[in-house]
Specification:
217 residues; mainly alpha; three-stranded antiparallel beta sheet; 9 helices; 6 strands; MAIN-like; Aminotransferase-like plant mobile domain-containing protein; AminoTfrase-like_pln_mobile
Length: 217
């Protein structure tokens, strides 16, 4: 699909004609909102760097000098957060029960959002670093986070990455390429995996699936 992508028109050139991923596709496949405020973050890091912001809003300090797993890069490096370090921290620290303070639950939710958005919806090519922009964007007002057009931003990222990886010599792709995979399965069914039991789901499964995005089904 990358080889058939044309950066000039942002469409796939196929023998039958041109096709592309639309906002409607993103909304139906993922359930992400495609209307609302634009996803715009700060162009520069906050005064004092990212460390104080992380400490204030997430409740922990990120090392800035300790190498991770012998790679020689600190968990917080040049405005980027290490994905392996963040995942490891979540696994070690995430213990939520009925007695967990609401403030702590909120902090855990923000950490999860940062990992989800920065490491899954907008990952780098190797899924090792989360850009610092998400730290400030996802640690602000809850209502403002929910009112943003996340689907539009994710689709723009997919378009940009397709333009990059369609060039000669490209070997990896970042962004939410899973959307391209779901889109291909839906519109070009000859590439889709076969469901071994497409019409034999029980009532509990059907009730669970009906409220989830089409891509999950």
């Amino acid at each position: 699909m990358a080889e058939r992508w044309r950066p000039e028109t942002h469409t796939f050139h196929l023998p039958e004609g041109e096709m592309t991923i639309t906002l409607k596709d993103v909304a139906i496949l993922t359930g992400m909102p495609i209307s609302g405020d634009a996803v715009i973050g700060p162009q520069t890091k906050p005064e004092g760097g990212w460390g104080p912001l992380i400490r204030d809003r997430l409740g922990f300090d990120m090392p800035t000098t300790t190498p991770i797993q012998g790679r020689g890069h600190p968990p917080l490096n040049a405005g980027q957060v290490s994905v392996p370090w963040l995942v490891s921290h979540i696994q070690q620290e995430f213990v939520i029960n009925d007695e967990t303070p609401e403030e702590q639950v909120e902090r855990y939710a923000r950490i999860y959002l940062i990992g989800l958005v920065g490491g899954f919806l907008f990952p780098d090519k190797f899924n090792r670093w989360i850009q610092g922009i998400w730290l400030e964007l996802l640690t602000g007002d809850w209502d403002a986070i929910g009112q943003k057009s996340w689907g539009s931003a994710v689709l723009a990222g997919v378009y940009r990455e397709l333009c990059t990886c369609s060039k000669v010599g490209a070997k990896q792709a970042g962004a939410a390429i899973f959307i391209l995979q779901l889109w291909v399965w839906e519109h070009l069914p000859m590439f889709a995996p076969l469901d071994p039991r497409p019409y034999r789901r029980n009532d509990d499964e059907l009730n669970f699936l009906q409220n989830l995005p089409y891509g999950v089904k």
